Amino acid sequence: METGLNYTTLWNALPYPAMVVNSENRILAFNTAAEQIFSVSERSVRGQLLENYASHGSRLMTLIAQSRSANGSVSERDIEINWTTSEIKQLNVQVTKLHDSGGSDALLVVMQPGSIAEKMTRRLMHRDAARSVTGMAAALSHEIKNPLAAISGAAQLLQMSAADGEVELCELIQEESARIQRLVGRMEHFTDSRPVEKHPVNLHDALRKTCRAAQVGFGANVTFFEYYDPSLPNTSGDRDQLAQAFQNLVKNASEAVGEGGTIMLKTAYRPGIRLSGADGHERQSLPLEVTISDNGPGIPEDFAPHIFEPFVTSKSGGAGLGLALVSKIIADHGGTIECESGSGRTTFRMLLPVHP
Ligand SMILES: Nc1ncnc2c1ncn2[C@@H]1O[C@H](COP(=O)(O)OP(=O)(O)OP(=O)(O)O)[C@@H](O)[C@H]1O
Ligand SMILES: [Mg+2]
Question: Most buried of 68, 92, 183, 301, CB within 10 angstroms?
């Protein structure tokens, strides 16, 4: 077949790191993506034994041996590759026997950065975290609200005939009851399991509304930057719920940056982004990207995987419900949310579908 293509050009244009090893595990080819991820040139690895770079007995070496004995293709997700010239990488690896090389037993090893796969799993995990509050919130609000109203009412009655030192105690009971009532009220947002009604929603309206409200309230001492793609199509759902999600994110950002900090709200159209359905087949396009980022101190690495879980908080007065609700709202709208945080920048990125 004459394609007019130069196969070296194709090999090096592959977006995934790949290499070919012979029957002795000597590296015959190493593409540009592999050079980049492992910080080593093809020239220096070509002809070398793979064992010199990936330790003997590692998962990669085992996978290669398995592919040889199976005489076919094997793959595994999230393998840790401890390549001597780079830091440890988490990659999905596929090893395929190359049958056209005159029985030479050469293998093609293709690696895919695991982060995409992992991110998808993490995004789906958030949804479960939010769901776990739902049942509990329903039970709590039922079991707590009525007795609490009675306690508060009784304290109010007592206060009328209370002696001097007792008035304060009656007030304390009422204040604390009100605090629990507010908490239960917030948890009730989780109990609504009806599907969201799909109305066209202009994301910029929701974002502007959030931003204006923040500027005169909790974000009064923060500078806001807004970069909106004017051609962004509408998404589908409930504008107030989406505004509530954005508000929770902007509130967290304001609390993180403190006085003089900056918060950026941004939208973009990313047509390439799709999410696989639970069955792994059905794919949904999520091209509307909303990012809310701040220049606060960031989220500690060991804390970050848990921030979307309910009741996880680092704040003395916090309930840890803000992000769990954001996660529920975005999931109810068919979207995803993820967070990236380093020192000096924290970004929450949401992907949402277009209104049909
Ligand atoms: N922009 C941010 N920068 C740094 N840390 C953040 C940011 N957003 C969230 N966090 C961390 O995630 C935790 C959970 O956030 P979440 O909004 O769920 O709860 P909360 O803000 O603590 O309480 P609540 O929102 O219920 O009042 C926060 O306590 C904080 O530690
Ligand atoms: Mg919060």
Answer: 92
